[in-house]
Design goal:
Elements: H1 3-24, H2 45-56, H3 64-76, E1 81-85, H4 88-99, E2 113-117, H5 122-130, E3 134-138, H6 149-155, E4 160-166, H7 175-185, E5 188-192, E6 200-201, E7 204-205, E8 212-216, E9 229-233, H8 236-246, H9 258-261, H10 284-293, H11 297-315, E10 322-324, E11 331-332, E12 338-342, H12 350-359, H13 376-379, E13 384-385, H14 390-398, E14 399-402, H15 410-425
Parallel strand pairs: 2-3, 2-4, 3-13, 4-5, 5-8
Antiparallel strand pairs: 1-9, 6-7, 6-11, 8-9, 10-12, 12-14
Helix pairs in contact: 1-2, 2-10, 3-10, 4-5, 4-8, 11-15
The structure holds pyridoxal-5'-phosphate.
Pyridoxal-5'-phosphate binds at residues 87-89, 92, 121, 123-124, 166, 192, 194-195, 216, 218, 229, 368.
Length: 437
């Protein structure tokens, strides 16, 4: 079969896929059947065809496409090394396992403490425990919902060696305050950016400010590779360690395998295992999808920001009743969703609001996993709590998130605002006049 014939076949398949998507993929808001889902697909015919072409090549396991996507992604953040893997959770596991590996320069050691915000995701914290480290849980700032930098001062002790921040819902942490403290106390900085692709602080991409940054490409995130994740770093040694651990402890995918192969001339260099390891590898179709998605990121984030700005403006009059997450000063928020926290003095609970919105076809979810210190999984393992963690507990009890994504159009925003106003109108007898719809 000639190359030209192949190209013609792919072109015809592309037309069919495009026609299918046009007929079936309608994610716009329709007032006659109003639904606002938390997530809609970010991919369409272009991405599906990239996956199809990757499958047709029959080269599906990690190879050239993954390598190319790693470079494309790292460069988009003005960084050098990307190590793609199969989820954001795997990215966190790989980053922490590499940092805690005895072969890594300035490694974390068993029993070392790592400060994490109480409002985080489970697999922000679990990899610390899985690698013999001790999570030290600190409270958040109630306005940005991110780690409160001053809590680092309270938390730091002789065994504390690192801080792992989470840019909650795409809101960049106050990195000036955090980096200052890391320098003051000699702490390594790890950025969990799994909710924050596209976000920046002071003009710098999140993920590029610490020793390692991690991202998720899960279906519901800013861009997707179906499942998927990536670690980024400027540290070649750490990148090489992540490549080893990603794949069985193997030297196969290293940038500089000769460092090992020359040392062990008696072992077949194709099958040289120099450390322990997992299998956290992504596939070629995932990378093919990511390569098409990444150039669309800025546009997707712009729509998330437009949606969030409209929600902020429309809901501001009700800030006696609930507060919306506020963008960090100096930050560029990429709005993974739109978090709302009901004030303790409001005459209704978050559960009431959640039920009303569900009945109106508006999906909600808790804000990350609430206060991780309240999750049963953490109770099973050594950890340290700093202070009462009241802010994170308040968010867990009274918070919910609604949609703010690329596919929420003006109609969707207007509908969410109208339904929230209708909900509040039920309480018009018990709230002050200035808060009333
Ligand atoms: C802060 C944070 N870290 C890690 C993850 C894990 O990512 P994944 O779902 O791709 O495993 C998530 C998931 O959304 C997250 O919100």
């Amino acid at each position: 079969m000639t190359t030209q014939h192949n190209a013609e076949l792919i072109h015809r398949m592309g037309e069919l896929v495009r026609a299918y998507c046009e007929h079936n993929h309608d994610f716009a808001f329709h007032p006659d059947r109003p639904v606002v889902r938390l997530h809609e697909p970010t991919f369409g015919a272009d991405e599906i065809m990239a996956v199809v072409e990757s499958l047709l090549s029959t080269q599906v396991t990690m190879g050239e496409r993954v390598l190319a996507f790693e470079r494309q992604f790292a460069h988009s953040l003005r960084m050098t090394h990307g190590v793609m893997n199969n989820s954001g959770s795997s990215a966190n596991l790989l980053a922490i396992a590499a940092l805690a590996n005895r072969e890594t320069d300035n490694c974390l050691r068993p029993g070392d403490e790592v400060i994490v915000p109480a409002l985080s995701w489970s697999t922000t914290v679990w990899p610390l425990i899985q690698n013999g480290l001790v999570p030290v849980i600190v409270d958040i700032d109630p306005v940005t919902l991110n780690i409160d930098p001053e809590q680092i001062d309270r938390a730091v002790g002789p065994k504390t060696k690192a801080v792992m921040v989470v840019h909650v819902y795409g809101n960049p942490c106050d990195m000036t305050a955090i980096i200052q403290r890391c320098q003051r106390y000699g702490l390594q900085l790890i950025e969990d950016c799994c909710e924050a692709l596209g976000a920046e602080f002071d003009g710098r991409a999140v993920g590029s400010m610490g020793r390692v940054g991690t991202f998720s490409f899960y279906f519901s995130h800013h861009i997707t590779t179906m499942e998927g994740g990536i670690c980024v770093t400027e540290d070649l040694g750490l990148a090489e360690m992540m490549r080893i651990l990603r794949s069985h402890g193997w030297t196969r995918n290293l940038q500089h395998p000769e460092r090992y192969t020359e040392k062990y001339p008696d072992i077949d260099p194709r099958f040289l295992f120099v450390n322990v390891g997992f299998n956290l590898r992504p596939t070629e179709p995932q990378a093919a999808m990511g390569a098409v998605q990444l150039p669309k990121l800025a546009g997707l984030v712009a729509n998330r920001r437009r949606c969030a700005a409209q929600l902020q403006a429309s809901l501001a009059p009700f800030n006696e009743l609930f507060s919306c997450q506020q963008e960090t000063v100096g930050g560029y928020h990429s709005w993974f969703g739109f978090p709302i926290v009901v004030n303790s003095t409001a005459p209704f609970s978050a559960a009431h609001l959640r039920r009303f919105l569900a009945q109106s076809g508006i999906e909600t979810r808790p804000i990350i996993c609430g206060n991780i210190a309240h999750q049963p999984g953490l109770q099973l393992y050594p950890h340290r709590l700093v202070g009462t963690l009241d802010c994170a507990t308040h968010v867990m009890k009274n918070g919910l998130a609604i949609a703010s994504h690329h596919a929420v159009d003006e109609g969707g925003v207007a509908y969410m605002v109208e339904r929230i106003r209708a909900f509040l109108a039920q309480y018009s007898h018990s709230v002050t006049a200035s808060s009333l719809p």
